[in-house]
Design a protein that fits this description.
single chain, alpha+beta, Arc Repressor Mutant, subunit A, Rossmann fold, Serine Threonine Protein Phosphatase 5, Tetratricopeptide repeat, 6-stranded mixed sheet, 17 strands, about 50% helix
Length: about 775
């Protein structure tokens, strides 16, 4: 590589690169940080080319000129360098891997030519490379276009009308979101699937970290593939529970290697795994043979190989046998947790149904047709009919049924009763099982909305050995809703270290960072996610909204939404279009969009990018129409739609879960009618029923809708005061939702309190530099 200037020094983050002395130093005290010569050369080349995509061949030639080396030498140098720079398990602040291409140094770098006088020349402030999916984003599609059926495994998230559309992520009944492969989640092509480990890329000395590769199905009947996948999941769960001294990488991440198998050493390097377990399963008639082998990736040596021959009935304990053998080989004393796991079943047919239900969860999101939920419910119900003592099946059925409530598919009292019965059955059969306790925690969290009891149940589940990152993310969401922000950050870091190839965790963790007023970190995480999952729909939309939320710019949001509209149901994106067209003041286009909607009600989307509307049921489309009429200056049409909203409220069965939501609709309906005092009273009631202490996310939804109702019914100071709370809150929707939304800017234009607030948050937006 080119010889650096004798006294050239580069500055980035908390570090200095002294090219003359070939040293990496701490800016705090000037102390050198040890690096081998080749690792330093790697750093220096990347720093000198900050912001550029440096392909691997170029970097290897620069660092090892005139020498033929393997790519693994470069991988190890990058790994060591990241460790020296202290990159956290949540984000890569300095070096970003571009799968299949090379690396980019993304931190701003300054060249200090004369360290004694600190004359600074700014080299670059690199911006993330557009994701591979962004090449055609500029090509717009019709706002109301799209196909009626959801065609992606992970549909785009939608944003709430009126309620400030907080872009925060909720791990709602997250156990259902374990994907079978990257394609199942995001349409990712198998030849681009790459897992990037978060945190240290090399195993810490003495630290055991196990990657269990997907088992190969050798059964004569391809239809038995579910059995191999089911055993894979059960063995991972059993190992994680029974061997707490080992870090077990999540099945979500591991299933990414089914689409594109890789050599064991490469898998270990990508995941910082000290050991790898691989195997095969053959099921034929009443016989099962499983072969597994354990590899020490640190020295590339087979430690142990074992064949298991079972009858189908005996195979029901196979995962426990394998877990015990692996833990023994790793010299770990099995603790068994505080209590044994829930007994599965001695009925092979019930076990088959249970495994099929778990594997079917890959298709379940808050956008999936209700028939998919019913299918999973039916599988678990049949398993329970065959074995009424099947505790794990009760726990899983409670979880799936709970999702139907929280996602507003079925919010009936009868459905809530069935969930409680399933939880009680699980507790009766296996009162200290981690899965059963997790199901109870999710019940308190999302059905009863009792955050304190939900956290207590999650803590009990953890003590009992709960380790599944997707279930545990429910606790993270709970601490976030309770405004325990530091705890949420630590918990997310831990979960992502265990499951680095999980797009759901990446997206939701990024959304939480956004809600915490940390947009730069959120964007870095999204960009890393897009490197791994370039065809994902949700992450690009989130990126556009993070940028809008902190700058007011809508260009990227519009491009991402146009792209999503080509492959996703128009109704599923109705909220997205309503919000974007409103922010861009394209009211005629918005009216045209609504004219094409024939439905009088739509299911309320809750969860990621959908806000805190859990268990409230449906929303009248008259709500969208009424706000559009007011913005277009048509009070007659607004009053017409206001009456429709109030008639909708009268027809609803009031519950503890939807009471605040119905008051919010009442407030807005009366605002459309010009019934000011009634609007004020209903808005106050909505806020009293949903205070921040009950659920910070749902409070934001209530606060946004109430502020709009106040603003349009001559209670401007009340609206401004509420928006001040929203702007300062954590979680928060971002300043642009307060300062740029016409639902506030139009009626509050002359309110001095609101104008002071807008001036302050606009300054915050200018300082964001996104």
């Amino acid at each position: 590589m080119d010889e650096p200037q004798a006294r050239e020094v580069f500055e980035f983050g908390e570090f200095l690169v002294d090219a003359g002395q070939r040293l990496l130093r701490s800016r705090a005290d000037g102390e050198p940080i040890p690096l081998t010569p080749k690792v330093f050369e790697t750093l220096l080349f990347l720093v000198e080319h900050c912001g550029e995509l440096v392909d691997k061949a170029t970097l290897m030639t620069a660092v090892w000129p005139n020498v033929v080396v393997e790519e693994n030498n470069l991988n190890q140098a990058i790994s060591t360098l990241r460790k020296a720079l202290g990159e956290s398990a949540v984000e890569h602040r300095f070096i970003v891997t571009v799968p299949g291409r090379g690396y980019r140094f993304v931190a701003p770098v300054k060249r200090v030519s004369r360290p004694t006088t600190w004359q600074v020349e700014t080299l670059a402030t690199p911006s993330p490379d557009p994701s591979p999916s962004s090449a055609n984003d500029a090509a717009p599609s019709e706002a109301a276009s799209g196909i009626l059926a959801l065609t992606t495994g992970k549909p785009s998230r939608i944003v709430l009308p009126v309620a400030l559309a907080l872009v925060v992520a909720i791990a709602l009944w997250v156990s259902m979101r374990t994907p079978e492969s990257p394609r199942a989640v995001s349409g990712l092509s198998s030849d681009t699937a790459t897992i990037t480990a978060i945190g240290s890329e090399t195993p810490t000395a003495g630290k055991l970290r196990l990657a269990v590769l997907p088992f190969e199905n050798l059964s004569p009947d391809p239809g038995n593939a579910f059995f191999a996948d089911g055993l894979h999941e059960e063995i991972i769960s059993t190992l994680a529970r029974r061997a707490p001294g080992i870090e077990i990488i999540s099945r979500t991440t591991m299933m990414g290697y089914r689409a594109r198998p890789k050599p064991v050493q490469q898998v270990a390097g990508e995941l910082a795994a000290s050991h790898v377990l691989e195997g095969s399963v053959r099921r034929e008639q009443n016989k099962v043979r499983m072969t597994v082998q354990l590899i020490d990736a640190r020295i590339d040596r087979h430690l142990w190989t074992q064949n298991y021959d079972r009858t189908l009935s005996d195979a029901l304990t196979l995962q426990s046998d394998v877990a015990g053998e692996v833990a023994s080989q790793l010299s770990i004393q099995l603790s068994g947790g505080t209590q044994p796991a829930a007994p599965l079943t001695q009925n092979p047919e019930a076990y088959d149904l249970y495994l099929k239900a778990l594997l079917a969860r890959v298709f379940l999101t808050q956008f999936a047709p209700i028939e998919r939920y019913r299918h999973v419910e039916d599988l678990l119900s049949r398993a329970i009919d065959l074995d009424p003592k099947f505790a794990a099946a009760y726990a899983q059925r409670a979880t799936f049924r709970g999702a139907m409530v929280a996602f507003n598919y079925d919010v009936s009292a009868e459905q809530v009763r069935r969930i409680r019965e399933d939880v009680d059955a699980g507790l009766r059969l296996a009162p200290a099982d981690p899965l059963v306790l997790a199901a109870e925690a999710l019940y308190w969290s999302w059905v009863e909305r009792d955050l304190a009891r939900g956290l207590k149940s999650f803590e009990a589940a953890e003590r009992a050995g709960l380790t599944d990152p997707m279930f545990l993310f429910g606790k993270s969401a709970l601490t976030f809703r309770a405004r325990r922000i530091d705890e949420t950050l630590r918990f997310n870091e831990r979960l992502m270290a265990l499951d680095p190839g999980n797009p759901f965790l990446l997206t939701n963790s990024a959304a939480m960072l956004y809600g915490m007023h940390r947009p730069v970190e959120a964007l870095r995480m999204i960009d890393r996610g897009l490197e791994q999952f370039p065809d994902d729909v949700g992450m690009p939309l989130l990126r556009g909204q993070v940028i809008f939320g902190h700058t007011g710019r809508t260009d990227e949001w519009r491009a991402r939404l146009d792209r999503a509209s080509a492959i996703t149901s128009p109704l599923a994106l109705l909220d997205q279009h309503f919000n974007l067209l409103r922010m861009e003041k394209r009211y005629a286009e918005l009216q045209k969009l609504l004219d094409g909607v024939t439905e009088t009600t739509v299911r309320v989307i809750s969860g990621s990018l959908g806000g805190g509307f859990y268990g409230v049921g449906e929303r009248p489309t008259a709500l969208y129409r009424g706000w559009t009429a007011l913005l277009r200056g048509d009070p007659v049409q607004a009053a017409k739609h206001g009456r429709s909203v109030l008639r909708f409220v009268e027809r609803q069965q009031e519950t503890d879960a939807n009471k605040w939501f119905l008051r919010l609709l009442t407030a807005q309906g009366n605002a459309f009618l010009g019934q000011k005092e009634r609007a004020h009273e209903a808005a106050r009631e909505a806020l009293e029923l949903m205070p921040p202490s009950r659920d910070a996310l749902s409070w934001l939804s209530a606060a946004g809708g109430s502020a709009a109702a106040y603003a349009w019914s001559d209670a401007q100071n009340e609206a401004a005061a509420l928006l001040e709370e929203v702007a300062a809150a954590i979680p928060s929707p971002g300043p642009a939702w307060v300062a740029r939304d016409p639902l506030f800017t139009v009626p509050l234009a002359q309110n001095s309190r609101y104008r002071v607030l807008v001036e302050r948050v606009e300054a915050e937006m200018r300082a964001a530099r996104l």
